[in-house]
């Protein structure tokens, strides 16, 4: 039953190295590590809108502007 041949799993692991570093890190094309959460704050800064004051909303509603 036991042979000296390597197992299928060990052959697959040797032929296809992992493209990630674990815990969500991804290897980029230039070999540097990248994590999606590290640039998330930049993304959220672009998505946040400035709050419009109640007075300005009231004036816009009275003037018929959006």
UniProtKB/TrEMBL annotation:
InterPro entries: Fil. Pfam families: Phage_186_Fil (PF10893). It comes from Klebsiella pneumoniae subsp. pneumoniae. This is Protein of uncharacterized function (DUF2724).
